[in-house]
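Marked as duplicate of an earlier ticket. Keeping the data here for the record.
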Amino acid sequence: MRIGVVLILAAFIASCSKSTNSGGTAPTLTAPTFAGPDSSASADTSGVAQAAITYATTFNVIAKGYVARFTGLTGSQSGNTWTWSQTSGGVTYTWTATSNSNGYNWKLVENGGTFSNWTALTGYESSDGKAGNWVLYNLNSTVAEDSVGWSTESNGDLDGTIVECNSSGVITGTLVFTGISIVNHSGDLKVYAGPVSTTYEDISWTASGGTWIVYYSGVTINSGHW
């Protein structure tokens, strides 16, 4: 996960001022909110459930940071493309959103200081923000570091996949969230130490507790509940 990016976000957010968009109705950047088990997971002494909470929380901090960086900026429209720009600490952050038939294609470019027109983020979001995908890139690199895709079920539950890569683009972890309900405190998370395979941890939970199962080559080798 892009923990270092959080520090960059904090410096930027502190300097942002609220303003209004210009030239019509501008799109709004949103981010999915992934959730792990609630406080009842403290009864799981294996640490698996707590890890699920950490995975979800870390992503949410990063994603919300990007949204906070964008929120309140003044946008201008040219054709089907909106542009927002903000300079902080000698770095200019430029967002663009280009409309398509179902939503918007997004891009964030950073220039100045140690950045030379570096594309930090690309992605797509539906107009209502209920589905989309983001790709976050390694610092000053065109190699993807994290990517996330999400969709919303008819009942409002969230499904999504987060893929983590190293600086060479090799997948080092995959998180698959299914049926995440903030309201009902329930969901399922599969954790892979690399690409999706038959070796993984599966954590399922409700408001009253949950279970975890460790699979190796499709065979259960450990399990527990809380």
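See parent ticket for discussion. Residues 52 and 132 are 22 Å apart (CA to CA).
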